[in-house]
Amino acid sequence: MAEKTGPPPSYPDLSAEQTQGGPSSTTSPPSYNDVTGVAGINLIVKAADFAARRHRTQKRKDHAQTPYINHPVGVAYILTSIGRVTDPVVLAAAYLHDTVEDTKTTIEEIEMEFGKEVRKIVEEVTDDKSLPKATRKALQVEKAPHKSPQAKLVKLADKLYNLRDLERSTPHGWDKKRVKEYFKWSRDVVAGCKGTNDALEAALDDIINRNL
């Protein structure tokens, strides 16, 4: 029996985004200044759905080529399970943190669909892909201490997920030297985010020390 479906969300899926590009919604951005209860759950689930649509054709760089959406889902789960983070705005930003950097999603679209607070966090953790990779990595270290506490939470969880992935399976083409360099660079980024969440920082210290 075919599954019944309701009307599609206002934002396009990835295929429509690829052909049209740019923001999709013309409505006013929502306000999530006091996100609690059902409104908070709706925000998180909407962000998860949005991220799944935008990342749906992408794969991770591991040997298994796992679906990319596993990453933002994992980052959000790290925030709740280890960091004990319950702020829906932070969790929504965790799901969305790579959409602007790695898909055709614009930061204006994030604000239109999810509000200014989510936009601010996503913007803070988004690298400028027009810059050389070495420059982007240096800027992450330089800017880490100056990020908002909410952005630092997402950054810490993002780093922990990536380091766990790297410890479990070396990406194709990486040698031991490159792996060690990634751990060293991550340690420098994490250092700039210290004082944000003891549990996340302890988990990061543990995995970094284990691999350096």
TrEMBL record:
Entry's Gene Ontology molecular function annotations: guanosine-3',5'-bis(diphosphate) 3'-diphosphatase activity; metal ion binding
HD domain ranges (all copies): 68-163
Catalytic function, reaction form: guanosine 3',5'-bis(diphosphate) + H2O = GDP + diphosphate + H(+)
Biased composition (Low complexity): 18-31
Record EC number: 3.1.7.2
Composition bias type Pro residues, residue spans: 1-11
Spans annotated as Disordered: 1-33
Keywords from the named record: Hydrolase, Manganese, Metal-binding
Cofactor field: Mn(2+)
Domain of life: Eukaryota
Broad enzyme group: hydrolase
Pfam families assigned: HD_4
InterPro entries in UniProt: HD/PDEase_dom, HD_domain, MESH1
SMART domains: HDc
Family the UniProt entry places it in: Belongs to the MESH1 family.
Summary of the function given for this chain in its UniProt record: ppGpp hydrolyzing enzyme involved in starvation response.
Protein name in UniProt: Guanosine-3',5'-bis(diphosphate) 3'-pyrophosphohydrolase MESH1
Gene source species: Pristionchus entomophagus
